[in-house]
Amino acid sequence: MAPYTGTLGARVIALQPGRAEVQLRDRRRVRNHLRSIHAIALANLGELASGLAMSVAMPPRVRGIPVHIAIAYRKKARGTLTAVGTASPGEVLDEATAEAVSEIRDREGDVVAIVTVQWQLQRT
What we know:
With 124 residues, the chain is an alpha+beta fold. The protein has one domain (3-123): Hotdog Thioesterase (Thiol Ester Dehydrase, Chain A). It has 2 helices and 6 strands; from the N terminus they run αββαββββ. It has a 6-stranded antiparallel sheet with strand order 1-2-4-5-6-3, with helices on one face. A hairpin with a 2-residue loop joins β1 and β2. The chain starts with a helix and ends with a strand. The model has no long low-confidence stretch (mean pLDDT 94).
C-alpha cells in the first residue's frame, strides 16, 4: 500500500487486530555513519508496525491517516530489530483521533526506540 515503506525491507511476523510485529535485519542500507541503524529507519519501522496495528484494528467503514509522529531514541540500534505496534481506535461515530504506539527492541530485548503516532480517523 505504501511503496516508500517497502524500501525498508522489513518483514511482517505477526498481524492481528490492534497488534503487529515487524522485523528489520541490520544491513548497510539502513545504517548511519555510527554503524548503527539510522534514526529515520527506526522511525519508519515504528510507523510501519503501529500503522499496521491501527489499520487492522479500525472499525468497518473507517479510514485514517497519521497526523503526528514522535520518536524517543533510547539506545543505539544494532542487529535484528523487532517492532511491536499496538493500537485501539475504539468507536468512531464521525471523526476521532487515536494513538498507536510501537516499541522497537534489539536482539537482547532492550528498547532502542518508542514511536508514537497520532491518527485522524473518519467514518466513510
